[in-house]
Amino acid sequence: xxxxxxxxxxxxxxTIKDATEYLSLSxxxxxxxxxxxxxxxxxxxxxxxxxxxxxxxxxxxxxxLTH
Length: 67
Prior knowledge:
This protein is α+β, with helices and mostly antiparallel strands and 67 residues long. The protein starts with 12 loop residues before the first strand and ends in a 6-residue tail after the last helix. It is built from 3 helices and 3 strands, in the order E-H-H-E-E-H. Helix content is 40%, strand content 15%. It has a 3-stranded antiparallel beta sheet.
């Protein structure tokens, strides 16, 4: 049985899978951003977790394309 996270719940740490859904990016893109240092993460045991603040900061730093 899985438990769905309610949309109103504010979580502090995201799994890679959760980050892909939050940012609408692929799993490999998330790993590339982490490896490049563009998306900082923390290790909890052997697991990598991304702080909500880091996800929001990454989005805020994206520059819109101008034509």
